[in-house]
Amino acid sequence: MFKHQIRIAYRDVTVGNHVYYARYLDLLEIVRNEFFRTLGHPLLQLQEQGIIFPVVECSLRCHAAARYDDLLDIETSVTNLGRVQFTLGYEVKRGDVLLVTASTRHAATTMEERPTKMPTGLFEALKKETEGHAPSCPSV
Amino acid sequence: MFKHQIRIAYRDVTVGNHVYYARYLDLLEIVRNEFFRTLGHPLLQLQEQGIIFPVVECSLRCHAAARYDDLLDIETSVTNLGRVQFTLGYEVKRGDVLLVTASTRHAATTMEERPTKMPTGLFEALKKETEGHAPSCPSV
Amino acid sequence: MFKHQIRIAYRDVTVGNHVYYARYLDLLEIVRNEFFRTLGHPLLQLQEQGIIFPVVECSLRCHAAARYDDLLDIETSVTNLGRVQFTLGYEVKRGDVLLVTASTRHAATTMEERPTKMPTGLFEALKKETEGHAPSCPSV
Amino acid sequence: MFKHQIRIAYRDVTVGNHVYYARYLDLLEIVRNEFFRTLGHPLLQLQEQGIIFPVVECSLRCHAAARYDDLLDIETSVTNLGRVQFTLGYEVKRGDVLLVTASTRHAATTMEERPTKMPTGLFEALKKETEGHAPSCPSV
Question: N or C, which terminus of chain D has less Cβ within 10 Å?
Fold first, then answer.
């Protein structure tokens, strides 16, 4: 379970001072990016090797609204793993309050967007992250 | 089935010239807004009456990438309707090519974000939109 | 003077129901894109010929706030023109009310971001747009 | 001189892997927000007291492009200070390389967007930040 903190800005909220729904997906990318860096496989390095991981499916469920200046904890974990695709689950919390659950499914592709296998080192690193905990986030 | 065209801008795309996944949700809002206006129930007017329709759940599935300057057709229809909640399905197309399917579930709430029933006039207008066609979009 | 209409969405506004300042720059791109298409030189076509026009400088002045669902008229004109750089001025209005004035200065570059001369046909088309009117927008 | 680090994400960049110009303004808000917090006057707290600081003017000058996954240092300082308005200057750097200079002018207003004087405590705190250094950023 990887955790990253993000502060909500005016740019993220709309009328009524709640985070605009699409902005959550923007935030998830930040968390994903740091998760891969922490794993030892920064997405930029993978991109430089010719492999990217576009989102092919995602879902979002909003239980309560995040507000301007909230400091959110966003947790992510690998909920499904293959050689070509993987799914991440996310929980967005303000303190102990669960605000949003989400998931993103990614396909490994070349820069020309052809499906490809992910590097073995990355697969092994992601596999370690899936062991020993039952994912609580809904899979896509 | 309501249809609206949107042109993709540089702001919508990222490295590799494909639309950034969260941007699709931004585009869906534009379509929704025009759909309600066409129904005779502009969302602004409903907001001025104290009723808003925040997204409580959404999903997105990307089949192929949209690119800079693409002129997309986005179709929406009501796939589920209650007095307090409704779900819209979407298909994003470039010509005949289906790029993205999506759905958004909305709850009618007061400005203080308490659930409320939608006005009868709106319910009837949405109901007409659900008649006579089987929705092809996945419900959330 | 080229004019284009844009509808403000929830994604564009923040707490207090006014358009977030950075969003105006997003809107200006939409207008620019349509302006070049109308000139007969779509930016996509120029990009495919290896020439892009990144913003090297811009300014924004907000006189009054735009709101959710406002239908804005955005006017643009060429306020300065060289072979390698040009400046556009913008006026954002709601009906007769001037809300925002802005300008963007662009450099013609190759895809590798080296300065280059713009095609003669484009230069001539832009030149026609500068004739016969004194620009009212502040140049950058 | 206040300094804050921000990592560039895929959401911030466009075709050609450079940061989309409007996104810099989004990033400046993050820095501003942390600057006021560090001063002991969080913008949220001021908002709760009924005072906000919308941008009334801003400018941006791009010297070189920021890229995906760049870790940028953004410095800000008070370049002009009155009881009702103030201007911040910014420098965006990647290591020692200056990428962008910018400025934002803000007006203190009530929630109803009427001009007002800022609280004395805030004025004094901002004044301290203007002393003893000549601003290098262009004022708006």
Answer: N
Binned average pLDDT, 10 residues per bin, chain C of 140 residues: 97 96 98 98 97 97 97 97 98 98 98 94 95 50
- Tell me the helix, strand and coil percentages in chain B, rounded to 5: 30, 40, 35
The total number of structural domains in chain D stands at: 1
Hey, of B12, B14, B18, B21, which one would you mutate to test binding to chain A, going by the most A CBs within 10 A of its CB?
B21
State the CB neighbour count (10 A cutoff) for residue D40.
Answer: 10
Q: What's A116's domain CATH number?
A: 3.10.129.10
Task: Point out the least confidently predicted range of A102-111, B40-49, B64-73, C124-133.
Answer: C124-133
CA A64/CA A70 separation, integer angstroms? 13
Return the structure tokens found at A112.
């020309």
Contact yes or no for A16 and B65 at CB 8 A:
no
Instruction: Establish if C111 belongs to a structural domain.
Output: yes
Spatial distance between the Cα atoms of D104 and D1, rounded to a whole number of angstroms: 15
Mean pLDDT taken over chain A: 94
Give the gap in angstroms from C-alpha C13 to the nearest C-alpha of chain A: 5
* A15, A17, A22: residue with CB nearest C68: A15
Q: Is the ipTM here above 0.85? A: yes
Residue contact C69–B43, C-beta within 8 A: yes
Is residue D72 domain-resident?
A: yes
User: For the residues B75-81, what does the mean pLDDT come to?
Assistant: 97
Question: Which stretches of chain D sit within 8 Å of chain A by CB?
Answer: 7, 9-11, 26, 29-30, 33-34, 42-44, 47, 68-69
What is the C-alpha separation between A118 and C28, in angstroms, rounded? 40
Domain span holding position D72: 2-130
User: Chain C residues with CB inside 8 Å of A69's CB?
Assistant: none
Nearest Cβ partner for C69 among B9, B26, B44: B44
Chain-wide mean pLDDT for chain D?
Answer: 94
Is residue D83 predicted with pLDDT exceeding 60? yes
Mutate to test the interface with D, among B8, B19, B20 (most CBs of D within 10 A): B20
> B138 pLDDT band (50/70/90 cuts)?
very low
A135 domain residue, yes or no: no
Give me the helices (H) in D40-133, please: 43-48, 120-130
Alpha helices in chain C (DSSP H): 21-39, 43-48, 120-130
Residue of C nearest to B33 (CA): C9
A10 within domain boundaries: yes
pTM of the entire structure? 0.94
